[in-house]
Design a protein that fits this description.
single chain; alpha/beta; eight-stranded mixed sheet; 11 helices; 8 strands; about 15% strand; elongated; binds guanosine-5',3'-tetraphosphate
Length: about 290
């Protein structure tokens, strides 16, 4: 079974985001700091084109900082501005405003030179589901002046939230449907809650989680379940070790269903500690093998 999207649904969401994009000067793309590459919309650049963009690595409190820093570097090398945030705890949110002003400083200076009084910068948040877009908007507003205003020329439903005197934010985020041609990305998006569980083969996702953990976070895996597996052990064998520790056998067989749910739940409730799912080394290795 593979994870699939309904193209109609995706097309509608993309159309809506494109419409909103026309209204803004700068886009804040939120990605999950635990998998910045997998939760980044690869097609964003096609959609956003000439707009300024800032990539916000949200949920920085949950990731493995050393690994995620490699991804920050990767995106910066590609010319993106990256800001780390923990929206839940309102950490580093004003940095986003400062960076947005920096990004648009030249444009504003040009307007001033022409004698045009610059209007406030208009921004919007976009990202795949569950990366923290609503939390980010709500916390940013609470942290700043909560001043909502209807502006002429803007659809009634849309409101501009004033972040400070220089910058406004669209009150509703643009939801990007995850688009991927690689099932591994789909499985990571499932783990971070961007894809609904009912369209996901959770057995595959949990085995994939075991694979990622045994490669990069073996100790966390062994410690949590009080097992003693190695990276050479088969994923199904590891799952059975966990089942043995945690659940009674059913009719002489391991309780795979409960173990699958447990693994996914434990990831989503941070029982494995600080984890980054996107492995930078894996990406580099793939690029090298593509070249050969
Ligand atoms: P979305 O609009 O992009 O779909 O995401 P939303 O803001 O609804 O956030 C999804 C979940 O992620 C929420 O948790 C939210 O609290 C959590 N979240 C958002 N930003 C951060 C962050 O920087 N760090 C951490 N640790 N969590 C973050 P939830 O479990 O769905 O709800 P609740 O725990 O807030 O009740």
């Amino acid at each position: 079974m593979v994870i699939q999207w309904f193209p109609g649904h995706m097309a509608k969401a993309t159309r809506e985001v494109k419409e909103k994009l026309k209204l803004v000067d700068i886009v804040f793309e939120l990605v999950d700091a635990r998998c910045p590459l997998s939760s980044h919309n690869m097609y964003l650049d096609e959609v956003v084109k000439e707009k300024k963009k800032i990539i916000i690595f949200n949920k920085i409190d949950l990731c493995d900082r050393a690994e995620t820093a490699k991804w920050k570097n990767y995106f910066e090398k590609k010319g993106y501005t990256v800001v780390y945030t923990d929206a839940k705890n309102s950490n580093n949110l004003n940095k986003v405003i400062d960076k947005a002003k920096e990004e648009l400083a030249e444009k504003i200076a040009r307007q001033v030179a022409k004698g045009i009084k610059p209007r406030a910068i208009r921004s919007m948040v976009i990202g795949v589901p569950n990366v923290g877009k609503s939390t980010f908007i709500n916390k940013l507003i609470k942290k700043n002046v909560a001043n909502t205003a209807n502006k002429p020329g803007v659809t009634k439903k849309q409101q501009w939230l004033k972040l400070n005197k220089d910058i406004e934010l669209l009150d509703t985020p643009g939801i990007l449907m995850p688009k991927f041609d690689n099932q591994e990305i789909g499985k990571k998006l499932s783990l971070i809650g961007s894809i609904k569980d009912d369209i996901t083969p959770l057995d595959d996702v949990s085995l994939y989680l075991i694979e990622l953990l045994k490669q990069s976070y073996l100790e966390n895996l062994n410690t949590l379940y009080k097992i003693d597996v190695t990276a050479d052990d088969e994923n199904v064998f590891i799952m059975e070790k966990i089942a043995e520790k945690r659940f009674k056998k059913i009719g002489g067989d391991y309780d795979y269903d409960s173990t699958i749910k447990l693994l996914i739940q434990d990831f989503r409730t941070q029982k494995f500690g600080l984890i980054t799912l996107d492995s930078y080394a894996d990406m580099v290795n793939e690029e090298v093998s593509d070249e050969n």
